[in-house]
Amino acid sequence: MDMKKKHVNEIFFLRSIACLSIVLLHSIAWGTEHIRHLSKLPEFLLMILDSVNVFLYYGTPAFIFITAFILGYSYEGKEIAFKPFMLKRVKFILIPYLCMAVLYALPFLLISLEQFTLKVFLNAVIGDFHAYFVLIIFQFYFLFILFKKWFDSRSPSLVIAGSLIINIIYLSIFNFTDPINVWYSEYIWERFYWIPFPGWIFYYSLAYYTGRHYQAMITTISKYKNLILAAPIITSISLLSLYHSEVIIIHSSKRVDILLHTISIIALVIYIGIKLKKIPSVLMLISKYSYGIYLLHTLYMAALILFFALTSINLGVFTIIILFFGSIICSIYTIYILNLFSFGKYIVGNVNVNQQSTVKTSKSNVNMRGVT
Fold first, then answer.
1. The dihedral formed by the CA atoms of 336, 341, 342 and 347, expressed in degrees to the nearest 10
2. DSSP string over 309-352
C-alpha cells in the first residue's frame, strides 16, 4: 500500500462547496420570502433567484456522496469494528443532531409543552427539520457495515446501474403520483419520503466505488475533461426547463432530474479540485467547520430575519447576502467557542480548534474532519 500522506484537495474542496451551496440556497429562500413581505420584487428577479435555488439543490446529495466516498476509500481491504465505528459517529454526529432537534423545537414551547415535545420527537425521529440528512447517512452507515463484503464482491457497474434504477423508480413514485389513501400519506408524499435510503442509494453506490477506486476516478475525470465541463451546463438547462415548464414542480433536491445534475456538479468540482495546487484557506476553514455550519446556519438566519422584521429594515436583495455571510460567520464563531469546552463537540460536532485538520490519503487510514 502507498502510505504517502498528502491533502485530498478534492474532498476538502467538494465539502466546502457543498456547504456553501446549502447556506446560499437557504439564504435565497429565506431572504426572498422576507423581502416579499415588505415590497414587491420584479418577476424576472424572482425567477432568477428561484432558478439559482433549483440549481443549488445538489448540496445535500453532495454530502451523501462525500460520506460514501470516504467510507469506500478509507475501508478498502479493511474489516469494520462495529463498536468503535459507530461510537465515534454517534458521539460527534448523532448527539449534536439530537441537540439541534431540541434546539429547533424550542419555539414550540410558546404554544405548549405538548407541542414542544411532539416537535422534538418529529425532529429527532423522522427528521422534520433541515438536519434530516443525518438520519440518511446513519442508514448508510448500517448498510455499509452489513453489506460491505457484498458490495466489495460485486461488479461496480452493475451495482451502480441497479442503484440508479432503484433511485429513479423511488423518486418517480413521489414526483409523479398523488398520495395514496393511508395514514399521513400527504406528509409522506410531501416530506417523509426524503428520509428512507432508496431516495439516495445511487449517490451512495457511485461514491462508494469511486472511493475504492480513487486513482481510476482521477484518471477518468482527467481523460473526459470536455464532458466534465459540458455536463453541468446540459443538466442545468434540463433541470430548469423541467422545473419552469412544471413537468416536475417539486421544490427540493428529491427530484428525479437532480440525480445526474448532482453528479455532473460533483465531477466538475472534483476536476477543479484536482487542478488546484492549494485550496484557499477560507475554503479549508469552511470544510473544517462544515457540519456545525450545516446544523447552525438556519438558527442565525431566523435571528437575522426576526431582527429585520422587528426593526422594519428592508435591504432588498442585500438581505440574501447578509443572511449568507452572517449565518456562516456566526456559525463558525459559535462552533469555535463551544469547542473550547469539552462538551462543545457534543453540541455542534467535533472540531480541533487548536490545530489544522489533516487528511491522509493512505488507503489504510483516512482522517477527514466533518461528516464522514
1. -50
2. HHHT---TTHHHHHHHHHHHHHHHHHHHHHTTSTTTHHHH----
> Rounded distance, CA 164 to CA 195, Å?
17
Number of H helices, E strands in the chain: 17, 0
pLDDT digit string (tens) for 37-47? 777 788 899 99
User: Residue 184 is placed in which grid cell?
Assistant: 399521513
Per domain, the residue ranges of the chain are 9-348
Please state, in angstroms and rounded to a whole number, the distance separating the CA atoms of residues 61 and 204: 9
Nearest alpha carbon to residue 105 among 88, 81, 122, 83:
122
Contacts of 317 (CB under 8 A, 6+ apart): 31, 35, 45, 49
3-class secondary structure for 212-273?
A: HCHHHHHHHHHHCHHHHHHHHHHHHHHHHHHHHCCCCCCCCCCCCCHHHHHHHHHHHHHHHH
* Residue indicated by cell numbers 467547520: 289
**Tens digit of pLDDT for each residue in 7-54?**
568 888 999 999 999 999 999 999 999 888 777 788 899 999 999 999
Tens-digit pLDDT profile for residues 71-121: 999 888 788 889 999 999 999 999 999 999 999 999 999 999 999 999 999
